[in-house]
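Quick start: read one record
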Amino acid sequence: MRITPFAASVLALTFALPSLAEAQQNQVKQNQGQAQQSQAQQAGQSQVAQKCLDAVRAFDDEIGRTGYGLAGPNGYFTAPGYGYTWGTAPANGYPGIATPRGEMRTLVRAAYVLGMNGDQKTCQTVLDSAKSLRQQRGEQMRADNTSANDTSAWRNKQLASAVPVNSLKSNVRLDQITGADVRNRQDEDLGDIEDVVLNKQGQIEYVLISRGGFLGIGDKLVPVRWDDLSVTPSPFRDTFVLNAPESAFNNAPTVGEDEMNQLASADWGRKVDQFWNQHISDSGQ
């Protein structure tokens, strides 16, 4: 029997179909297996990174309580109560280099971002660097012979000498504002400036104050009018002063990261203004 070329092609295709189908099924299974493996790896990585995030938050809370990086009577070497710091500030502040608080904020923020992206290993490495920096500052602090009482007296004098920001004769850099400590004249810790809000003219309208930890990670922010603040004298200018009691922040208006559109609302602005008009006094009590 003679087989035509067309018949031969049909026969070849018939025998090849089961092999093609089997190959396709194997490829689908392989792709599914790779996808499941990738999902498992991502889930595992995210779970491990959560451990680092928890450690970052705990460290953030700890250094927030110690008031890390504030100046004392010997400059940036301070007694217990005002953190672990270094050196004396130049006469013109810190042009081009970070303050001790700026250094620490950069490291802790970087660890937090890495943890949020599931990078456990690098998150932990950066966090370890932050802890090492804190230890170094602690050793320098212990070498300082200034007493806690002397530090407290010096800080109270600085707070009492704070100058209203709207009467400053020189400009203030943004990196001197973000991350700065906020206290009242009784030296109560009110939080740290996390961000600023500009008006249509490009001037600072509000500062957003975080209340929990050094960075206030995950916390809602409290808006405070820029013109209500004063700042401690040069050369340090590392603390802003608000004449309000710490208890006022318990009921102050807040804004979350997903609520920033409220900042442009006239009603929201009136609410903030009304609140602080009732709670700010000359004495801060």
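The chain has a mean pLDDT of 74.
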